[in-house]
User: Fold these one by one.
Assistant:
Number 1:
Amino acid sequence: MRRMLPRWLRSSSEPPAFFAHDSRHSIASRLRWSYLISSTLPLLLVGGLLLFISLSAQQRTVFNEQQNGAARVARDIIRYISGIERQIETFGLLVRPGASPPDLVLAAQRLQERIFPYLIDLAVIGEDGREQFRVYSLQPISRSDLRDLSGDSGVLRALRQNVTSFTPIAPNRDNRLTFVMTMPLRNDAGTVIGALRAEISADPIIADLRAATSSATSYAYLVRAGDGIVMIDDGQPGFVQPRGIVHLLASADGVAEYVGARGISVVGAAAPITSSAPTGWIVVVEQPFTIAFASIGRSALLLTTLVALVGTVALIWAFRAARQLTQPLDALRTGAMAIGAGHLDYRIHASGEDELAEVARTFDQMADHLQRSLEAIERQNASLRKDLALARDIQLGLLPDRPPWNGDTMEVYARSIPAYDVGGDFYTFLNLSEGRIAIAIGDISGKGVAAALLMALTSSAVESQGRQFEHPARVLTALNQLLAPRLKANHMNAALLYAVFDPGSHTLRVANAGMIAPMLVSPGSCRMIDIGGLPIGAFAGAIYQEETLTVAPGDALVLVSDGVGEAHDPHGRLFGFDTFEQTCGTLNTTIDVRLLAELIINRVHEHMAGAEQHDDITVVVLRPSMTTVDPVSHQEDTADYVVI
């Protein structure tokens, strides 16, 4: 058994020589012999290169054939469109100020008759977007039936942008495939004075596509450039919307391999249709992959067989030599996996004189250092976890657990869920003079201990400044002047919303410094109070505005931090503020404020579906009491806060 083990793994009672090496046992020596045995590798590389060049050349030939086919069809279609466009432009030269309307109608009829039946409808549109006259199927339309096309996108582009545009090809009211071309109408000075709008038959385009599809090995169809939706198919049975058309449209050279219009792999080429302006159409010509690459497959098989035979011989010798290296490397890999799994007591106990033996001895030394370091780190982590738990308790203790007023003034419920042990979100409540009450909710940028420390500072400053100033906007301005130097020094800021409720007038004054706008929820409706401002500390000279609104009995005000809107599900999708607004719209404001807040939090957690929370989540719901009660006899009915 001893002779079966690699030499450098055998135990040795003597101290190993760490720097002395015998060249006969070195990895470098074994690699030289391996390279010598594998001298056929250049032949394999040359064979692989020849195979690659041959396949690439044949593939390029197939791609070029497809591109040329698509370009031919595109040219035929462009020729048809350009011919009609030139005749319509010639007609447009007759439309000048002072021209006789009957003469223009007669000229339009003659133009329509000349290219009948392809020009179905022709209209002259004034600068106001209204039709001045229109000829449909050789017949002039009465003035009462003329249309107002001032909202038509093609007409707007012709009048305002001086460009010609084309609509997608689609069935018209007679179930014929047609498209609409709208071009600007210019006077002799080149100024746009109106537009020409023509409905044109797509029958010649269909004929061009059918002619290209006459071959049994390829087929052509027409799609929209933006989304790849098929406008005209190839006219053969079994045609479906191609699933892989997006890969072709995204290809830089206009050719790609994908699943085509009959659910099989194809080689497709795309050619855009552009006349005097882009039409937004693309000709696609497809050929089944098996037909297109039939000759390539035979060549590839022959070359691959030759390369495989030569490569097999080289690999046999390479594996034979590599096996002598993989045995000690396996031992190192096993040791690394054991260490990675946490078994720091695992040792290789290598002996030998080559480089891998040195690595093994270094590995054992590293394991010893790691084991000692891990023990020290575990002791430090235990102490840190204890300190963080204490910090979390202290931080939660800074948040009020009940309002400083009786429930007959304002019902309130608040809940804060830190993303980590400690967070930067906070809220506070103040009793002011004349029965007024103040509510504040804030969010310190960043997370962790730094945010928690600044949260305590900001919360304390809110309470001190809130008692000095009557208006919320003045409170935020004073806080910004007070805290901006400290926040900016730490490259942080504080979002804060401050609101003052006057129960006598049922008014609420709100000022906002970077927080999510509050949501006012009324029976059967909800709206976001449009009030904003820069976060505290973002700009030392910031001035804040405030909004005053009347809060009716039964209304509820919902305040949240951005952790609600930015909550992610396992796929990274945000909860979003639209969903938050929809959730508020479903709230029944007659239920307890605690249930209102918990409903919002539950909706957020349902969206997260177990995903990691990335930001602190804070929800505050307040509602003026709908009845007046004795504050002494019902003091125990005051709404509580729940803080998590």
Note: Confidence is low (pLDDT under 50) at residues 1-21, 628-644.
Number 2:
Amino acid sequence: MELRSSIKYLKGVGEKRAAVLAKLGIFTLWDLLTFYPRTYEDWSKIYSIKDAPLNENICIRGIVGMPCREHRIRKGMTLYKTEVTDGEMLLDITFFNNPYSAKKLEQGKEYLFFGKITGKGYYRSMNSPDFVETDGSGGIRPIYPQTAGMNSRAIEKLVKSAFEYGEKPTDPIPEEIRNSYCLMNLSDALQNIHFPQSADMLSEARRRLIFEELFLLELGLLRMKTKSRQSTAVSMKKDYTDEFRSLLPFELTNAQKKAISQAAEDMLLGTPMNRLVQGDVGSGKTAVCAALIYNCARNGYQSALMAPTEVLAMQHYKTLAKFFENTDITIGLLTGSTPAAEKKRIKASLKSGETDLVIGTHALIQKDVEFDRLALAVTDEQHRFGVNQRNSLHSKGQNPHTLVMSATPIPRTLALIIYGDLDLSILDEMPKGRQKTETYLVTPEIRERAYGYVKKHLCEGRQGYIVCPLVEEGETSEMTAANALFKELSDGFFKGFRLGLLHGKMKSADKKAVMDSFSSGNIQLLVSTTVIEVGIDVPNAVIMVIENAERFGLSQLHQLRGRIGRGTEKSTCILISDADETERLNVLASTNDGFKIADEDLKLRGPGDFFGSRQHGLPEMKIANMMTDGEAIREAHTAAENLLKKNPALSGEEFALLRNEVNRLFSGGSMN
């Protein structure tokens, strides 16, 4: 059976089970083989009943002494009991409402039992153990992520079936590289990641598979970086940074000056600038971006700035229009809700070269958007786009300069992986006058006091936010929905105040109307979902309450908190949660440093959940861990660099599988 065949054709699956497996992301035989265990049970060390440690998951060997007896103790609860012996001591076994397991145990047969032993003195018992018939040997058994209708043991059986009936996988890593780094071949690694022969073999299998994931990732990113270093037709003739700085009503921070200098120097060269400007909330990335746009315009070139949401695009339009109000730089705004006639006019002026800067959403990468002399392609909140969409904007010009901005602080190790094709500038200074936002974690019992504190600020002429994770009731009954909360607060606690509602399901025109009203001060309190996470800049907003704070990642909470504290007034963020997550949420209360928070978020949630959704155009990390596999990252990076120095195109039959695999993973950035 071919590895890319549908999983429904594997013995023991079929249409129904295939639908269940799809919920786990398993669609093919290969998906199943690379659906790695989340942990393991060690059945290799077998204890006697007498010597087994109590209240720990351990394995014992025993012979069933009698058939399971049924005990109905109350309606809806039936116990099934038996006892086993290892020849020295007895062990009571109990199953709860599980006649299936009880019937599988046959009197007189020997089994391995895995579970926790409890008891006092000579009495020992084990509740609901896992068990298998034994030939006298144990082993290390895999435990898989599971879903309704498909438990770990069922997946284990299917994986065994896949090894039995599936073709042997071909290894994309050439033998020479495997030998250099002492790596297992792929087939052995897959066998030992699922069914390890020993703890050492499991360790070696993990090392091999982690190396492969990171090696393929580094090869793709380094190839992209090499491609982007080819000559550009848009090198700047002069640096106009000093002229731009004279337009500003404020002094740039040293970090901003350094980032602008680095980028401006890149743009004077004959190769394209490819730079990530990463900074915490409010660190001034837009001013850095504006300086480079100004440079392009003064050199006779065009720029494009792509944002992930219309709200953020509109915010950038307002900010940059203010920066350039005393210049002759022309700006256009192009989003999904731009009227048809206006779209037509903007597209024509871009093609003719009349518009110097266009700001927009995904609308910018539509086929009919053409530029006369695009020199700078900027993407903001890059993790919401990904490699392919960045490439689409880039393709609108003749190898233009690329600036990527991210207000989501990313640990440096992770940034090097995700943005491995970019140079890095970090804004680690805050503009003068910015106050630290005080953050408090409270339980729902004192919600009314928290709302009273919000009311106090509103009465003093300030504005605020109340953020909740859902739009409508029903998805999760315990969650506070924005619509319901807005109505409840408007008619209740905040009756008489001017409230507004903002969420992602609203029409663009309605969103704009609400934001304009909030920005002008007409709306005092904005009830919102995470649509305000980026791009909202209202200095008079100084108070925020976040409902069900446990529903958010730390980095997302930090982004939300960044909507306040944007002026010179002291600001306060109140997190409301009754979940048992005080340690995690207290991280946010203890620091305003986004990079520290990002580190903690990555440790607590792992790279798969760090951004809330996977990077478009980048391969998913199934086994590598960005926080713990630092040495493997460095090893894979070195291996990829060395290989590409010798063979930049990965040409030749020996590298065909490797080249194809990288092409498959980076389908938008072909290496042909």
Note: Confidence is low (pLDDT under 50) at residues 475-479, 607-618, 668-672.
Number 3:
Amino acid sequence: MALFLVSLIPYIIFTLFKVKKAIHMLQQNYYDESERYFLWILKNPKKVWLELDVFFPILIVLFFTRGKIQAILFGIFYTLLAVEYHSRRNKEQVKKPLVITARVKRLMFTIFLLYLVMILPMIICFYRPFVGYYYLYLGLIAYLVYFFVKLANVINKPVEKCVFLYYKSKALKKLKAMNLPVIGITGSYGKTSSKNIIYDILNVKYNAFVTPKNYNTPYGLILSINQYLDKFEDYFIAEMGAFKRGEIKETCDLMHPTYGVLTTIGKAHLESFGSQENIQKGKFELIESLPQNGFGILNGDDPYQVNYALKNTCPIYWTGIQNQNVDAYATNIEITRDGSKFLVKFKDEETFYPFQTRLLGKHNIYNILAGVLLGRKLGMSVEDLQRGVNRIKPVEHRLELKRTGDLNLIDDAYNSNPVGAKMAVEVLGMMDGEKVIVTPGMIELGEKQYEENYQFGSAIAGKADYVILVGKEQTKPIMDGLLESHFPQDKIFVLNDVKEAFPLIHQWKTEKEMYVLLENDLPDLFNE
């Protein structure tokens, strides 16, 4: 019995490594919201089923051994697996590490109880002749870790619901006591950039609170209210994300926004929404939740917004660049590597007002226009708006131009989409020097994924000197688009890890300035 228990030590260590990895994937899949974690399991059989412990059936050899040799062989098997697994994980680039939150701790406790229930009877009723069966059984439950993590998550759902309702009630009381106007921001692309732009503009005159990082779900908003919201704020700027219809409505029922900004409606999360129409209706849930004493700001150059039959009679204001029959439009746009300059014309005014920003890319002009028009409607002067736009800070990993050693890095790594990716390539094309793009492509575009990535490859062909693709399978459409556009094949390099890109790039460095566009950086769950 004692030897049997000692032999479990390397087994337990290996199982803990796997549990940690499975919880990491569950967390990155929003704790299986909309079955995202389960779908990830189905789409990634190599990662789930082909770990080295797939060979656990060889433990059947222990049926033909007796005594100490059984424990020694079992211990050696899982020692080797634990060492190899740990070594491989240490070499992996973890872009977003597992965050040990209170929820993760509760999940770990439930997983511990599950394994205890499965293993404890075997130890209590230990019967020496059955040791071979015990080892085979242990191998099986270690192999099925990803499913036990899902089961633990299902078991914890009632608990998590109670925790959510407790903190929701606390947040609502705080929000109601402050009587704070809420500005909701949603769209397929540009939500976080718009959120930060509006924050920088409004804070010239007001005290505005903005949700930190990418806290754009009901959970994130509740956390923001309870932990960060201050009683001296004038406005609450809330980013609202969604993976399916109804989720933005749920967020609006929580936050009760007075004002709403809709950035752009595109193909982001097409896979989970199911159709372009569902995306359109889902994003308009914000505008259709606004009260009559509020207003919405829409993009007059976006056909999915212009052609939508809005089910709300609250005031709506429009921005545009191509469409000048709007409430505020930008013209005379000049975009250089140092930033952007443009003129803004407000409806019913004759003056063209000059604005200047450090931000790159035409899509940021749309986001700034929405912020400028919002500020104008909330009582800000043009001078305050100009000052606000001038001081807008680049958002981390969103077309952020920075110097790294002897390279100029255009960091657009946060999250790529068809519109933003093409605009990022346009920005790269403006640069005077050698141009390199590093990308794993775009994801979660459903049936449009091949087509959009193919077009992305075609767009790159006319702008870049070198292309580094990360992940052979997922970047095949980009490769096809590049080759069809006659991009030189010897200037295309395919890697499995973005960390391998920079040693390669330094080999190409000449006396010319070199600009490297990092377009998208997929979460760990998409690593090939």
Note: The chain has three domains: 2-158, 180-390, 400-526.
